[in-house]
Amino acid sequence: MSQLKQIIIVGAGLSGLTLALALTDPKFQTATPFHVTLYELRARDYHHGGAIMLSPNSLRLYDKLGVYDHLKTLGYNFEKNTMTLDSPELVSGTNVIGPNPSHPQLRTGEYLFGAEAMFGYQGLRIYRQVIIDALFTILDARPNLTLVFSKQYTHVVSETESDVTIAFADGDTAAADLLIGTDGIHSKIRSYVVNDDSISPKYTGIMSVVGAVSTALADPAHPESITGPISVSGASGVYVIAPQGPTGSDLMAGTQIAYTEQDQAGWRALMNDGLRMKALQEAGRASWASPLVKNAIEHIKPESMYVWPFYMVPEVPSWISRMGKVIIIGDAAHALPPTLGQGANQAVEDAYSLVALLTGLESAKENGRVSANAIPTAVRQWQHKRQERVDRLKAMTAKMNNNRLPAAQKEGMSADQFWAPDPERPGEEMRWLYDDDIEGMIQGIFEGRWRVE
Predict the structure, then answer these.
(1) What is the pLDDT of residue 388?
(2) What is the pLDDT of residue 441?
(3) Which of 58, 220, 240, 317 has the maximal Cβ count within 10 Å?
């Protein structure tokens, strides 16, 4: 009977590292421990720009993996994103998504990103490089993990009922009992799994232009008043600032703009030109009334800037190959727009829940309760439940994107096309997301409650 002794992961971003963390965690070991080899295209010293926001749904899982207490000291802990209007003149009709009695003309609502009292965890904004370095340090000490850098995966050589063999650009090959692709939105492994060239990233025509600015320069009069992200809605769209770093001494400052799609070289050239990126923000500075936004654009650091083109991937019909030896997760399986800050969180959920599923299956196989071919069936049921959750997030994202439209584009839209907090029970509208019961979902698979053809 086949056992999952050897697992290959391709891609050492947040999804791949979290997957490796869970696969090598003592709580998830069976009688036959997993041995994991993680291959990464880039060098270990590659710098990952920007920051991510982690909410209670992923932080709870990092807590179960024993790393939350450390991670929370490395970033900025906060609870809410305050949504405001650029000027009182914009307060009309659907521009207002919820009253706030302290500033009825300008504050339009709050998006709860975490709340210790309600969900056990605050939100955490942390530099991507900081969390990746922290996970590397932990993984370096795991005896059943091998990290390989500067190794470019090219294709699957063969897949049988017992194993899968992959090839690399340098001519090497490697075989394992299971291959898991965490190689991002432009995943090559997804192309193998679905065998359909139409399931590829499509540019939305929008990109974020983002950088860092000193909090003291953005709000010199009251820098201490910025205790969490602020979204300012104006005539030209939304400008977002968010404290980052353990003390919040810097702010992420950025907005979304329409921009022509570039080829790989074009995007790279733009990313390497800080002054050009700063000029893209400065082009819209005159349209803002908010001193906070104006100051942020003026003082943003060119060397800190980056762009994030928004690509979408059509729904991927299968996250597992026909023979069941190749699986994709994270952005490779379901890329989400960054609007809600849930892309990284869903990658963490994918990784943790998949390992919980595989561990349960391995234990059941070792005890003779299921056959080896139970893995593809169980993974398809897991995908079905994960896709339901992703679909709900996509619907919420569409509404939040409408909140961020320029004022003129909102005219004529109905209230149900916008996201709004629950006025009767603030924060409860987020419970479905932050209190997800992954163990219950996995148990439902083993009990046969989720049937998928």
Answers:
(1) 95
(2) 94
(3) 58
Nearest 5 degrees, angle CA 311-CA 71-CA 140?
90
Domain, as residue range, for 144: 6-70+123-201+313-446
Query: What are the structure tokens assigned to 158, written together?
Result: 């063969």
Region 126-142: mean pLDDT is: 96
- Number of structural domains the chain divides into: 2
DSSP labels, 50-81: SEEEE-HHHHHHHHHTT-HHHHTTSSEEE-EE
Question: Does residue 28 share a domain with residue 162?
Answer: yes
Do residues 71 and 62 lie in contact, with contact meaning Cβ atoms separated by under 8 Å?
yes
> Using an 8 Å Cβ cutoff, are 208 and 255 in contact?
yes
| Tens digit of each residue's pLDDT (9 = 90 or more) over 233-292 | 887 788 999 999 999 999 999 998 999 999 999 999 999 999 999 999 999 899 898 889
Comparing CA positions, the residue from 63, 107, 387, 380 lying closest to residue 233 is: 107
Burial (CB < 10 A; 0-12, 13-18, 19+), residue 173, is: exposed
Say yes or no: 228 and 307 in one domain: yes
Burial of 369 (0-12, 13-18, 19+ CB in 10 A): exposed
Cα–Cα–Cα angle for 439, 36, 144, nearest 5°? 95
Q: Who wins on pLDDT, 382 or 101?
A: 382
What is the rounded CA–CA span in Å between residue 249 and residue 112?
22
pTM: 0.91
DSSP structure class, residue 284: T
pLDDT of residue 422: 83
Cα pseudo-dihedral 129, 309, 434, 449, rounded to 10:
-110
